[in-house]
Write a structure and sequence with these properties.
Layout: E1 28-30, E2 36-38, E3 52-53, E4 55-59, H1 63-76, E5 79-83, H2 86-96, E6 100-104, H3 112-122, E7 128-132, H4 137-141, E8 150-153, H5 158-169, E9 180-181
Parallel strand pairs: 4-5, 4-6, 6-7, 7-8
Antiparallel strand pairs: 1-2, 3-9
């Protein structure tokens, strides 16, 4: 693995300085150098005139992996909502109306393929990226009503995630992604 990439599955080497206060937020920020940092809540009030960001739904049952993916997607420019299982994910989809879904295939209660098919019935143009650590995913997709818009095999790098997101969103890497929603 090169120095500029972070394998999503390798997150156990995150260290936090002992000089940090004992009470800190659970927000995780992924910087351009792909270092994880603990984010502190801002004391500034939210400005209602600020443009709203597009929403990404990140679905992964492994909490640490989900948080790293969510941090990368937030760094990309999205407001991220998370779910740890297929049922919770579908509820988040209905409530939040995301612009993209990134989901693991193997999930509790409802797997990612069933979730994708259920979402695609309601939102056929919604980009969905499936992720898995298992090599036999193609066999799993044979019975799927809809194909995923993108696929990532674990472990993957943040750059691979961004490249896949750019492709499914139709964004060139030169122009970047504008995640603000026009009012």
């Amino acid at each position: 693995m090169s120095g500029n990439t972070l394998a999503i599955g390798l997150i156990h080497f995150i260290s936090v300085s002992s000089s940090l206060p004992t009470q800190y937020s659970q927000d995780v920020i992924l910087t351009r150098e792909y270092r994880l940092q603990v984010g502190y809540p801002s004391s500034d009030p939210v400005d209602p005139n600020e443009p709203r960001r597009a929403v990404a739904l990140v679905v992964e049952d492994e909490t640490e992996t989900r948080e790293v993916i969510a941090a990368a997607v937030e760094n990309y420019g999205f407001r991220v909502v998370q779910a740890g299982d297929g049922i919770q994910a579908y509820r988040q989809f209905e409530r939040e109306k995301p612009s993209i879904v990134i989901s693991d295939i193997y999930l509790p209660y409802t797997n990612g393929i069933v979730l994708m098919n259920k979402i695609k019935v309601r939102a056929p143009r919604l980009p969905i990226i499936l992720i898995t650590g298992y090599s036999h995913y193609r066999q799993l997709l044979q019975g799927s009503r809809f194909p995923p818009d993108g696929f990532l095999a674990k472990p993957f790098t943040v750059d691979e995630l961004y490249t896949t997101m750019n492709r499914v969103l139709g964004v060139s890497s030169e122009s970047g992604f504008n995640s603000t929603i026009q009012r």
